Amino acid sequence: xxxxxxxxxxxxxxxxxxxxxxxxxxxxxxxxxxxxxxxxxxxxxxxxxxxxxxxxxxxxxxxxxxxxxxxxxxxxxxxxxxxxxxxxxxxxxxxxxxxxxxxxxxxxxxxxxxxxxxxxxxxxxxxxxxxxxxxxxxxxxxxxxxxxxxxxxxxxxxxx
Length: 160
What we know:
This protein is of the alpha+beta class. The protein has helices spanning 13-40, 50-55, 57-70; strands at 73-79, 82-88, 100-105, 114-117, 119-122, 125-129, 135-143, 148-155. Helix content is 30%, strand content 31%.
């Protein structure tokens, strides 16, 4: 038998420093990833009373699921103070004679909410005026019979 005893490397301050730096580097990398994902994805909706909103959740989901049955195709654009909604039916035919109102708000807070009455400019094209800052917006389109449709769109500040 041999009397070989492996040498232990001592636990030095340098090793401790590397462990601490590695630990915090992992935490900072994970936090940076989570922050990036949080900023680039949908931030949720703001409601006045979360309890009431939770009680209406199933009805809101049923309404949202019924909307594709209509087959409407809606598109919102905002440029130079003019908000335009293009409304087409399932076959691509313009929807005429709708009495529409558009509520525009930030998805993350309710401070910049704007209600825009829309008037028909051409077949299936409705527009109204609204001054919007650049960024992400949530538009809720309401018809005269109380039906709603929510659409998310971005508005970029025009180049000077």
